[in-house]
Write a sequence for this structure.
């Protein structure tokens, strides 16, 4: 984390909006006295939550707002923003850059914001817990702070040690826990005092409530006994009522049953009289029926004889028809087999005809193809003849051109020869001379060879070669001269003749064209002759095809006639078949008809037989019924007289029952009236219905109940006056009392928890503090020796038994001096000692950035050197912003910021980066 920038507006001398950018390493802020350097430090402290006006060097918080100058009006708001880079996550916020802003208005309103979101001062403080940064931490060191470190009160030094130990957070938690503990104890005291009050009332009301309780219990018991007494009476009457009702119901049922029986007997007598009437009527009817049935039976017998004769006649006709039908079926089989035969023959002929037809079609198609071929050949002949005409016209034209060209060649040749003085005579004589010379040379060579052979034969070893060669060379020279003279006679213009664009070349081209044209004419004529031969051939073939076609057509016609005749034969056979089939059908119909008639006649005969049988049965049954009816009439007569006797007896019984029923009805009404009276009395007495308690069981006897009731009533009377409100009041007080007791117990538990937490915090704080303190102690001695070039320094806990409260004493022994309490050191020595302590702390817990405001002022040249060296060393780990007037410190810085007051009373920032290189003179001026 580094401090990237500070933006100020309206803060002290920064009346204009100013942004001060910081970089890593050591930055020196320089400028004349009173130009506003320390105001920058104040601004940073202010944003970090400084509330002390003394530390801010003002008398009130509004004084930090720009007060105006002679030329500028005062402002109403002061605002400072710190911009920190949080790439390494030192601060517990998930942002790479954090902007913390504080604003104060003249009205006194103040506000904080982190990344533009409004926050509380507490949030800002918590953000920097244990980072070494903060209004009272060690990241900002100024003369006042040096004094604080070295002040005579050892307790004041503790804070920076605690910050380095990282126990600020624990301190905060401890304070909070202590506050909570205090609040808990206060609450306990309060709860206890209220509880005491409530407890007194609780006991007083408890006794009254118990009396009310007893009174209510007795009343309830009395009520219960009274219910039981009433229930016993109620049940007694009810029992009698039920018994009487049951008896009444029995008598009524008996009466109904008797009435029913009498009614049934009357009905039965009436039914018997009705039955008698109908029986006599039936008897007469059956006697008439028997007579009728005898007559019917005789007529049926004569009909049945007639039908049997008809059946024999029909059966004879059916057998004759069946013989006829068989004859016809044999004939039909014969006809069908000849139809199949003829159909096959017909199919074969048709197949043959189809075959011939397809042949005819093929011949016709090939004749048509040949005709088209002839037409194509004739067309090609016509085209070739047209082309021959054109070629002949071209040949004629080329002949004309050739004649003209030949004339031109002759003319040009003559002119060329004339121009070149060509002499044919001279050329011929030179060619003769050349030939002669060469012949002469050849003859000489042959001659010398013969001489050489003679020399060899004669054995003369030395022929005159030199002489011969001399002679030969002369002869060759002569021939060469002649040849040169011959070449000189050749006319030079001939070359132009034979050149590619020369006239001879043109002639050759025309010759070639003529040859081409002649060849083309020749080949076209050959093609015409060939085509004519092919046309003749094709026509001859077509003639033969036409003849074959004619034969095929004749055969086809003949086959068609045969097919027609066969079709006729088949049709005749089919007609014959139809006729035979219809005859067979007719016979079958007749047979069916005869069969149906036979069935009908047989059915009629059977029906008559059945009818005859039925008549016999009916006659028998009628006779049986007559006997039965006569017996029934007798029985009915005796039943009627018995029923009439029974009715008389039952009527006597019925009048006795009627008297019983009327008496019981009077009894039941009396018991019902008694129950109603009991219920009304109970309701009047208790305001509740007795019916609510009908299910209740009563074990006791009436005597016991009466005795207990008298006792309970006496006890209740003895209770005297009762405060019925006491019970309700007691309930409220009891709830409150119990609530307070439970609260007190909760508070006790909370107190115990807080005490444990506090012990834990103190234990951890103590361990952390001691570990850090020991490290700082060792570092302090080492850094001191470096800064002083020797000597000794020590830290001491004033009360080692309570390190969290103990003051810290500093002892220092500069080289060559005695170990002394720091109060006795010189100003410079004190500053150097404080710086040593500061760096010793940094070694344990480096603060991410550190601001030193003129802490080098009291140091001499030697000490400044060592201070700057240490500063540079530590700048590897932390960012240092140093306000200084010292040139050595300035020279040791990486960056320079100048503060000026170009306009009186308004601070302005000038950035000077490379001191002594880019703008040395300006830096010097500012310093
Ligand atoms: N509220 C304010 N409005 C305007 N100017 C103010 C206000 N408060 C302080 N100043 C001016 O700020 C200046 C003091 O600035 P500061 O103490 O930062 O100077 P410095 O550069 O640290 O000086 P030195 O080097 O002497 O310590 C004074 O001129 C004072 O008038």
């Amino acid at each position: 984390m580094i401090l990237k920038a500070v933006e100020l507006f309206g803060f002290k001398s920064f009346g204009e909006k100013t942004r001060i950018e910081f970089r890593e390493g050591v930055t020196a802020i320089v400028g004349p006295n009173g130009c506003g350097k320390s105001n920058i430090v104040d601004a940073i402290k202010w944003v970090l939550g400084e509330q002390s006006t003394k530390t801010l060097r003002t008398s009130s918080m509004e004084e930090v707002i720009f007060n105006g100058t002679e030329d500028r009006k005062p402002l109403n708001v002061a605002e400072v923003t710190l911009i920190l880079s949080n790439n390494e996550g030192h601060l517990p916020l998930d942002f790479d850059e954090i902007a913390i802003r504080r604003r104060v208005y003249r009205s006194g309103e103040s506000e904080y914001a982190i990344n533009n979101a409004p926050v509380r001062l507490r949030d800002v403080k918590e953000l920097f817990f244990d980072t070494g940064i903060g209004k009272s931490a060690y990241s900002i060191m100024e003369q006042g702070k040096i004094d604080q470190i070295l002040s005579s009160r050892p307790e004041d030094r503790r804070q920076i040690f605690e910050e380095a130990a990282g126990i600020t957070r624990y301190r905060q938690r401890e304070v909070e826990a202590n506050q909570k503990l205090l609040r808990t104890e206060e609450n306990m005291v309060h709860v206890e005092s209220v509880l005491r009050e409530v407890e007194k009332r609780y006991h007083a009301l408890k006794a009254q409530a118990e009396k009310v309780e007893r009174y209510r219990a007795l009343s309830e018991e009395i009520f219960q006994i009274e219910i039981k007494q009433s229930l016993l009476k109620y049940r007694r009457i009810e029992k009698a009522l039920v018994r009487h009702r049951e008896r009444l119901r029995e008598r009524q049922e008996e009466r109904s049953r008797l009435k029913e029986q009498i009614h049934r007997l009357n009905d039965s007598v009436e039914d018997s009289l009705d039955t008698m009437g109908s029986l006599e009527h039936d008897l007469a009817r059956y006697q008439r029926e028997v007579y009728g049935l005898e007559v019917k039976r005789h007529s049926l017998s004569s009909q049945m004889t007639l039908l049997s004769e008809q059946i024999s006649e029909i059966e004879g006709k059916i057998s004759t028809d069946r013989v006829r039908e068989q004859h016809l079926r044999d004939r039909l089989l014969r006809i069908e087999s000849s139809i199949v035969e003829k159909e096959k023959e017909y199919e074969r002929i048709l197949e043959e005809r189809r075959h011939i037809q397809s042949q005819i079609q093929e011949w016709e198609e090939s004749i048509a193809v040949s005709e088209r071929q002839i037409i194509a050949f004739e067309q090609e002949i016509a085209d070739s003849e047209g082309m021959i005409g054109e070629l002949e016209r071209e040949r004629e034209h080329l002949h004309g051109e050739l004649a003209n060209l030949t004339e031109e060649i002759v003319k040009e040749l003559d002119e060329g020869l004339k121009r070149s003085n060509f002499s044919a005579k001279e050329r011929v004589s030179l060619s003769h001379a050349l030939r002669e010379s060469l012949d002469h040379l050849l003859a000489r060579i042959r001659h010398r060879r013969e001489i050489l052979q003679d020399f060899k034969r004669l054995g003369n070893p030395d022929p005159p070669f030199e002489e011969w060669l001399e002679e030969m060379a002369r002869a060759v020279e002569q021939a060469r001269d002649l040849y040169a003279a011959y070449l000189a006679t050749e006319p030079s213009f001939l070359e132009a003749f034979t050149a590619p664009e020369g006239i001879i070349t043109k002639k050759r081209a025309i010759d070639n064209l003529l040859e081409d044209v002649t060849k083309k004419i020749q080949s076209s004529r050959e093609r015409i002759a060939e085509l004519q031969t092919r046309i003749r051939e094709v026509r001859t073939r077509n003639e033969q095809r036409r003849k074959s076609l004619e034969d095929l057509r004749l055969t086809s016609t003949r086959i068609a006639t045969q097919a027609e005749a066969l079709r006729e034969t088949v049709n005749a056979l089919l007609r014959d078949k139809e006729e035979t089939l219809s005859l067979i059908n007719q016979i079958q119909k007749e047979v069916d008809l005869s069969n149906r008639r036979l069935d009908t006649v047989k059915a009629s005969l059977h029906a008559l037989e059945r009818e005859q049988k039925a008549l016999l049965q009916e006659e028998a049954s009628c006779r049986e019924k007559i006997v039965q009816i006569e017996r029934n009439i007798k029985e009915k007569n005796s039943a009627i007289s018995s029923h009439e006797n029974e009715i008389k007896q039952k009527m006597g019984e019925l009048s006795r029952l009627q008297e019983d029923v009327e008496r019981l009805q009077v009894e039941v009404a009396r018991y019902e009236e008694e129950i109603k009276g009991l219920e009304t009395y109970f309701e009047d007495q208790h305001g509740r219905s007795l019916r609510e308690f009908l299910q209740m069981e009563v074990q006791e006897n009436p005597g016991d109940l009466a005795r207990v009731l008298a006792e309970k009533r006496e006890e209740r009377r003895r209770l005297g006056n009762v405060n019925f409100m006491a019970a309700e009041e007691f309930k409220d007080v009891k709830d409150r009392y119990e609530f307070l007791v439970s609260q007190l117990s909760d508070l006790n538990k909370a107190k115990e928890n807080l005490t444990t937490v506090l012990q834990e915090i103190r234990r951890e704080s103590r361990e952390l503090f001691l570990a850090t303190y020991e490290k700082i102690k060792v570092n302090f001695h080492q850094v001191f020796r470096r800064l002083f070039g020797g000597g000794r320094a020590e830290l001491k806990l004033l009360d080692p038994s309570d390190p969290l409260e103990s003051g810290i004493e500093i002892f220092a022994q500069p080289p060559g001096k005695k170990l002394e309490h720091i109060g006795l050191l010189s100003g410079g020595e004190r500053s150097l000692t404080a710086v040593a302590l500061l760096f010793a702390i940094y070694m344990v817990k480096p603060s991410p950035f550190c601001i030193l405001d003129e802490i080098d002022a009291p140091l001499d040249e030697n000490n400044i050197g060592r201070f700057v060296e240490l500063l540079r060393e530590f700048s590897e780990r932390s960012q240092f912003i140093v306000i200084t007037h010292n040139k050595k410190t300035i020279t040791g810085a990486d960056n320079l910021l100048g503060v000026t007051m170009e306009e009186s009373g308004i601070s302005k920032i000038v950035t000077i980066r490379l001191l002594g290189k880019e703008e040395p003179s300006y830096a010097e001026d500012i310093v």
In short: The first strand starts at residue 2 and ends at 9. Residues 914-927 have pLDDT under 50 and may be disordered. Residues 423-490 form one domain.
